[in-house]
Amino acid sequence: MIFIDSALGKKTPYTPIWMMRQAGRYLSEYRESRAKAGSFLDLCKNVELATEVTLQPIDILDVDAAILFSDILVVPLEMGLPLEFLAGEGPKFNQTIRSESDFKALKKDAYKNLTYVYDAVSSIRAKLSKDKALIGFCGSPWTLATYMIEGEGSKTYTHSKKMLYSNPKLLHALLESITQELVSYLGEQIRAGANAVMVFDSWASALELSAYLNFSWEYMKKIAKAIKSQYPHIPVMLFPKGVGAYLEHLDGEFDVFGVDWGTPMSLAKEKLGGKYVLQGNLEPARLYNRQAMLEGVEQILSVMNEDRGHIFNLGHGMIPDLPRENAIELVQLVREKTKR
Ligand code: CP3
Question: Measuring from atom 38 of ligand 1, which residue has the nearest CA?
Answer without folding.
Answer: 90
